[in-house]
Amino acid sequence: MWRIVRGGARCRRWTSLVLATFICSSVIIYSYIYFHAIRSIKIAKKLKYVQRNQTAAQPIAQPWKERVQKLTKNQRMPLLTLFTTWIDNDDKKLVHNITIVNWLSLRPFVLPIIFTNETALAKTCELAGWKTMPLRVVAADGVPVLKYMYIDAMKRYESSLYAFANGDILFTDTLIDTLAEILQDNSTSHKHTLIIGRRTNTNNITMKEVSSWKELTVVAKKRGKLFRSDAEDYFVTSASYPWHEIPDFVVGRRAYDNWLVLNARKQKHRVIDASLTILAVHQTTDDGNYESKKKETREYNHLLLLSLYESIKYNLGDCICAEYETSLRSGRIWITPRRLRKFCRLR
Length: 347
Ligand SMILES: *[C@@H]1O[C@H](CO)[C@@H](O)[C@H](O)[C@H]1NC(C)=O
Ligand SMILES: *[C@@H]1O[C@H](CO)[C@@H](O)[C@H](O)[C@H]1NC(C)=O
Ligand SMILES: *[C@@H]1O[C@H](CO)[C@@H](O)[C@H](O)[C@H]1NC(C)=O
Ligand SMILES: *[C@@H]1O[C@H](CO)[C@@H](O)[C@H](O)[C@H]1NC(C)=O
Ligand SMILES: *[C@@H]1O[C@H](CO)[C@@H](O)[C@H](O)[C@H]1NC(C)=O
Hints:
It is a single chain. With 347 residues, this protein is of the alpha/beta class. It folds into two domains: 2-53; 65-344, Alpha-Beta Complex (Spore Coat Polysaccharide Biosynthesis Protein SpsA, Chain A), CATH 3.90.550. The chain is 38% helix and 18% strand. The strands form three sheets. It has a nine-stranded mixed beta sheet, sandwiched between helices. A hairpin with a 2-residue loop joins strand 14 (324-329) and strand 15 (332-337). It is elongated, with a radius of gyration of 26 Å. The relative contact order is 0.12. The model is unreliable at 46-62 (pLDDT under 50). Keywords: Membrane, Transmembrane, Transmembrane helix.
């Protein structure tokens, strides 16, 4: 009797021990699976702009997963809506094809858009994986007006930042890393931000040379030349940037780049020169680096500004007059105020 009772007690104790172990391990395994599922759902949501058609666009295998995980909560994906516009032209086909492939490699951080009313061009870009939008306003014999591209892109697509870049400019992951760092920087309380930088002119870039960011970097280092600091080819602005207040400049004609920078400085926006951390490669062809000088309406923007202001000191809109600069130190990107040269003084 006694033995049976004791045996039953031991048995019951064993049963509860096994049960407890079972429940505990189930809870641990379940939580583990749950936690991972939630995490991958979160990442998948962030990656909703990853192109579904991986073969058409031939994207480059990039370490984007780690980058996505590094982003903080207040950073929206994509980080940047990047747009441009060009006219379909046989002489420039290769340059544009290379731009199409290069900008695609920046997804999901960057959403590439072309503004065009040309059906064939829109179709080519769409098939490759770009978004297309119609050109709402043109001037100077059909040249696109810059600000409406910003206004329309901001209305249509949500992202942390928006930028126009000329259609022959190529970027690498340095664009993503620099913008992510700037978005995280909370050391100033500026309402609006403008990010600009110098370009690196590089001759005869081939499709093979843009097959990876690394290769493009090597090519730019080997054959490239940093262009003058008073030429700006891309303008990254915060989502709230007051584009409606900007005059109706057309793209690809001189004067508007420097005016945008000098105006942003006067309005006390945060103006950042990212030349030291963003590689912006300009595809230089046999036309050279001063293509816009040949066009008949080349003074359109300058004349527009003269009709609005008495004098325009373009030198105040030089890259080196930006109040902030980015730099690379100890493997990190820093955004720091800059000691301005005398000729940058606003008055
Ligand atoms: C994928 O690409 C093919 C051809 O390149 C195209 O016909 C198809 O519509 C694309 N699918 C998606 C989902 O974009
Ligand atoms: C550019 O791309 C289009 C479509 O992918 C292709 O048909 C064309 O041959 C390419 N042109 C050049 C010059 O690379
Ligand atoms: C481009 O197309 C849109 C509609 O698709 C039209 O509203 C606009 O006026 C066109 N732009 C030009 C410059 O023709
Ligand atoms: C800025 O962000 C850092 C973390 O990235 C945080 O430690 C710091 O408190 C923040 N400063 C302000 C003023 O919000
Ligand atoms: C590009 O290469 C061709 C020959 O391969 C050469 O004739 C031309 O001058 C080069 N263009 C530039 C801008 O270097």
